[in-house]
């Protein structure tokens, strides 16, 4: 098989036309059309058919595209594995993107195992919107993206979700709010000032649904994309805020606040997204194993707390 023909076919199929593919590949449209014609002749089937002014995949074309995605994904894994393979006397660089909705403490706890490998590692962190980070991942400018949601269905990126784990959320209040809103949980949330996660975030949607299901109507005083900002506003007594239950004691100790209660039904999920279907990068392996066995998998010893379903 001529893999150059396969590559041209793949680009036309993914980009939706010969002209777009020619711009991406810096090759004349006539060259791409000729290469695809040669590829169809070699396979003995038509891969595209006219659909108005555009090209549409035939049934055979869709089948070939599935194989092409797998072939080029494995090729990308090969390049990454060779490029990042630890060599004696050389520093391993690990480039990780963190979606801005992921709590900073969770991100630090997840990334930390990568710094504890036998070989020296230089960690480069980037924080951005998830869709932007996935674009960087597709261009192999990142080795991993840590997110609070899997790859969105409307984002066309050849990458794979590796679920790290999940936990519920706890509700925290500064001392100034405890006398007024420290009563029975979760009833104490009704009418209370609250710093909410962004409405479009995964945890923000689940939290709003949970409050509605329990007929609770807190007074939203702020809405934050950045969980660190929400935590700071809550620490200063602006309103009640939420955080991952697995970090409950850390949040209390670091911010001088107290947990009012918790619910497992507002679930925060965390994913490692990589171009590897089968994880081989040593830093990604360390992160996924530690997250599943320790951060989210361990039975955490906690003092009894009020929990709402």
Automatic annotation (TrEMBL):
Transmembrane segments: none
Key words of the record: Activator, DNA-binding, Transcription, Transcription regulation
Domain HTH lysR-type residue range list: 1-58
InterPro entries, alphabetized: LysR_HTH_N (IPR000847), LysR_subst-bd (IPR005119), WH-like_DNA-bd_sf (IPR036388), WH_DNA-bd_sf (IPR036390)
UniProt cross-references to PROSITE patterns, sorted A to Z: HTH_LYSR (PS50931)
Domain of life: Bacteria
Family: Belongs to the LysR transcriptional regulatory family.
PANTHER family, alphabetized: TRANSCRIPTIONAL ACTIVATOR PROTEIN NHAR, TRANSCRIPTIONAL REGULATORY PROTEIN NAC-RELATED
Protein name per UniProt: Transcriptional activator protein NhaR
Phylogenetic classification of the source organism: Bacteria, Pseudomonadati, Pseudomonadota, Betaproteobacteria, Burkholderiales
């Amino acid at each position: 098989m001529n893999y150059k023909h396969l590559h041209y076919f793949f680009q036309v199929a993914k980009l939706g036309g010969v002209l777009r593919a020619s711009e991406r590949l810096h090759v004349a449209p006539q060259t791409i059309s000729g290469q695809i014609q040669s590829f169809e002749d070699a396979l003995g089937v038509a891969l595209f058919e006219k659909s108005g002014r555009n090209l549409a995949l035939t049934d055979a074309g869709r089948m070939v595209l599935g194989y092409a995605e797998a072939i080029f994904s494995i090729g990308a894994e090969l390049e990454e594995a060779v490029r990042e393979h630890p060599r004696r006397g050389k520093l391993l660089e690990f480039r990780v993107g963190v979606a801005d909705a992921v709590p900073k403490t969770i991100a630090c706890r997840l990334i930390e195992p990568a710094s504890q490998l036998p070989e020296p590692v230089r960690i480069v962190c980037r924080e951005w919107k998830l869709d932007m980070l996935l674009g960087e991942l597709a261009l192999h400018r990142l080795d991993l993206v840590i997110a609070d949601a899997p790859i969105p269905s409307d984002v066309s990126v050849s990458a794979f979700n590796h679920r790290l784990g999940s936990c519920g959320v706890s509700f925290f209040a500064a001392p100034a709010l405890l006398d007024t809103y420290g009563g029975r949980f979760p009833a104490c949330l009704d009418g209370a000032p609250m710093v909410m996660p962004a409405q479009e975030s995964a945890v923000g949607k689940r939290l709003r649904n949970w409050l509605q299901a329990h007929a609770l109507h807190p007074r939203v005083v702020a809405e934050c994309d950045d969980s660190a900002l929400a935590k700071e506003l809550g620490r200063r007594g602006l309103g009640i805020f939420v955080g991952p239950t697995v970090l409950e004691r850390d949040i209390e100790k670091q911010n001088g606040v107290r947990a009012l209660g918790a619910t497992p039904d507002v679930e925060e999920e965390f994913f490692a997204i990589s171009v590897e279907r089968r994880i081989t990068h040593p830093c990604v392996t360390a992160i996924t194993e530690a997250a599943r066995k320790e951060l989210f998998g361990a039975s955490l010893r906690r003092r009894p707390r009020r929990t709402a379903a």
